[in-house]
Amino acid sequence: MKNFILLVSLVFSGCLLAKQELSNSFLQLFNKGDRHDVQEYLLKHMSQNRIQTYGIEAHVGAFLNIQNTHGKLTLLKVLSEENNNERLLVKSENHQLTYTLMINREAQNPHGMNYFYLRDTPAKEKATAGLSNQKVASELAILMDRLGNNDAFSGVVLVAKGEKVIFNQAVGFANREWRVKNTLDTRFALGSINKMFTALAALKLVEQGKLKLDDKLVDYVDRSWLPEGEVDQITVRHLMTHTSGLGNFFNDEFNDSNKELYRDLESYKPLIAGAPLHFSPGSRNRYSNSGMLMLGLVIEKASGLSYYDFVQKYIYDQANMTDSGSFELDSTTPKLATGYLKRMHSDNWVKSTYTRAVKGSPAGGGFSTSKDLHRFALALTNYKLLSKELTEEAYSEKSAYNSAKWYGYGFSVGGQPGNRIVGHGGAYLGVDARLDIHLDTGYVVVILANQSDVVSPVRRQINELLERVE
Questions:
Q1: Strand ranges for 379-449 from DSSP E
Q2: Helix or strand or coil: residue 248?
Q3: Of 309, 301, 326, the residue nearest 225 (C-alpha)
Q4: pLDDT in tens, 74-130
Q5: Do the bridges between strand 367-368 and strand 431-438 make them parallel or antiparallel, or are there none, so unpaired?
Q6: Which residues contact 231 (CB under 8 A, 6 or more apart)?
Q7: Using an 8 Å Cβ cutoff, are 362 and 267 in contact?
Q8: Would you call 453 helix, strand, or coil by DSSP?
Q9: Do residues 268 and 293 touch, judged by C-beta distance below 8 A?
């Protein structure tokens, strides 16, 4: 998503601060508060309604991660209230970017705080154009050094123009306990970036004549996987556009389960089977991890191979992605970065290993390197993975099928005419990742991090620099 959004929902106790006093005290907390201060403040001033859904631990942790990412916020201007949002124009110490700090309060008494987020707000003065690629690289080197020194980013950034790599630098630690540094060969978790590979695998089967986009899910998946209702209407296209009505298997049952169980697609069945549809298939859009996992099952049935073997053969091998795969977290796979994040219960960084499935799925969770994702982008846009027609179908928006305007078949679709940007992002606890392919200008941007909530501001700065290149 474009901006970090922190949904906070905590117990209301005591008197809430008056308007403007809340934003002032919130800014002080953001700049100076430790985890104990944050917990106390949120318990006192947040809306009661949302804690019943989310709980305090998740929101304190999210606050601490974004606080670590941005560093202190300098107040530039107090802005007028807008739709129950107190607004402050601020500047991030770590990134030197301007944002509007939005603090949303309940419309009714007691006017508790619902959430806050930092909305991208470019400075009014227009930056000078005429940058060279060499200048872009030097600016990014300064940025990465600053973020690394402030512990505000751990990962790798690659910017390429076609085949030529302009910038590729790693900072931070792949393993904090042993002080093992990230390198250009470190394998980072991808989160939902894997959805691109899943969608391309399905399109490869379409190209081979083994699958059609309007084929029914029930022709490939046993009904014991599915709930009652309109499941007969779900098509392969619905799965690829998040319009199937299926939900998200990252639920309370998953959180409470033994993560070592999830080593193949069949192991996810208890999390999905029987979960009700959220809407009639094809009627609207809702991002669905369960739908993408079902697409993996379709791929297995149509191809006769395991999902993992099919992706290896037709995507990783074809693109020469030698360091990519769905590696098991309890294996001895070399060069895997451990994920880290801030949590309410600790003053130190906390590993996210035990919160994640032991092996990734068609919905996400694989690993790759910046070099491999660059190779993937080149293979994709040179039509080495699929025909030109099907490739362009993959990253064309599908609003005609009631999908989101920013989504194709497993690809996000954005940018502007003359600067179309396609790819995908991925985020989870201790994981943040992004691949952007600039179709018209030929740039490829890879940002992979083993730290929570750090990619968005780096991506913003890269895009602002590339806009100034002549």
A1: 412-416, 419-428, 431-438, 443-449
A2: coil
A3: 301
A4: 999 999 999 989 999 999 999 999 999 999 998 888 888 899 999 999 988 777 889
A5: unpaired
A6: 217, 218, 223, 277, 281
A7: no
A8: coil
A9: yes
